[in-house]
Amino acid sequence: MVQNLNVLSFAPYGKVLLERRGASGLPKGDDWVEQEVAATIYDIRQFTCTQPVYLDFQSGMTILAVAAKDEEFVYYYLDKPVEINPGVQFAIAPYQLRCCVRMIAHQDAWPTAAPLTIPLRDLALSRHLQVERVYTFFYHEKERGFFFRGESHSMLELTYVDKGFIHSVAGGMDLVLGQGDMAIYGPNQWHMQYADRDCAPCYITITFDLEGDSLNRLLDRKFRTPQKAVQLLQQMLREREREDRYTGDMLISLLSQVLLTVLREAEGAIGTPLRTANSINSENEVVGHAQQFIGDNVRQKLSVPMVAREVGVSPSYLTALFHKHLQISPGEYIRRAKLQESKLMIREGRMNFTEIAQVLQYSTVHHFSRQFKEKFGITPTEYARSIR
Questions:
Q1: Which residues of 326-353 are buried (b: 16+ CB within 10 A; e: fewer)?
Q2: Under DSSP, is residue 44 helix (H, G, I), strand (E, B) or coil?
Q3: How far apart are CA 27 and CA 60, in angstroms?
Q4: What is the secondary structure of 335-384 as a DSSP string?
């Protein structure tokens, strides 16, 4: 980054001279030669001096690059006259297209010019990472034991748990996200979430598109959210309530800061990975495929053997994988998915309980009602009353 010229920071390379008119400290007399030296973005030269050299800006936004021998350049914005020490290498570069400076040196020691050997950095600040669009930004307050059967989409998705715990499932692995934990799903990655029966969590989800650097090092992991990122998420929630012309700009900017803060923290310590060895990847794919099949066909008559055939493994192996990665059996997973679907159907209000039981392939409405109460602690009738 370009620095401001001041006496202390420039001291290793020379002196910053007075800016007062008529008292610049620039030398005069027959022994001194003055020239205008121009530079363009296509013609930048490197100078070396054996005696002091004086520079003053003339036109254009001018960068003065200085370096001790063979060291990297340090960059200053040339907006005042300077004296450069003997032996210091320096270059004049325009910020944009062209610039011009006054160069004054002793007639017997004019600086030698040579092709640039130390490359100049692009000094204008630019983004390495940029949130392009935010599609959804929700604060979820879920009921106890909620069950979201899963989805995939082309956007990235961030989940941050504000209260309680949720099970975050992606790649066939179940991570328990507690208060202050975060996970990010990649584009087109199937994922689902649910809570235990005794937990009513609150959490944030944001779907977005990103340009520039990727978030690959953050995907498929859970990690503690840095406190600064938590504060930024809270600011996003407050900003969402404003709903003015610049709300979208503010949310995009704040989300970019959240991700940059998390990425900086991740340089030092990455959280628990979802994926490790190839064998676990393969197991995750089997479990994830099974979960997605169940979610897509939740209103069909499902069985463990049917799901096992779909994913190409035996029922016993599928059961072992579900217990290993999700801590429940595939039969129990099917039951939870169907009961969560029944909640959605009750809220829609288009079917009675008998019709819902039939659509979800329960043997009787009494069987459906009994399982509903075992899972949620209330009957379907009591649940319907609670939401009306």
A1: beeebeebbbbbbbbbbbebbeeeeeeb
A2: coil
A3: 23
A4: HHHHHHHHHHHHHHTSS-HHHHHHHTT-S-HHHHHHHHHHHHSS-HHHHH
Q: How far apart are CA 18 and CA 15, in angstroms?
A: 10
For residue 262, give the H/E element and its range.
helix 247-268
Both structure tokens of 89: 């290498």
Residues 6+ apart with CB under 8 A from 11: none
- In the block, tokens 């002793």 appear at 106
Say what the pTM is.
0.64
d(CA 58, CA 50): 24
- Determine the Cα–Cα distance for residues 73 and 47; give it in Å rounded to an integer: 12
For 138-196, what is each residue's pLDDT tens digit? 999 998 888 888 888 999 999 999 999 999 988 777 888 998 999 999 999 989 898 88
121: three-class secondary structure by DSSP: coil
Cα–Cα distance measured from residue 62 to residue 227, given in angstroms and rounded to the nearest whole number? 40
Measure Cα distances from 137 to 30, 187, 194 in Å: 71, 17, 19
The model's pLDDT over 338-388, given as tens digits with 9 standing for 90+, comes to 998 998 899 888 899 999 999 999 999 999 999 999 888 889 999 888 877
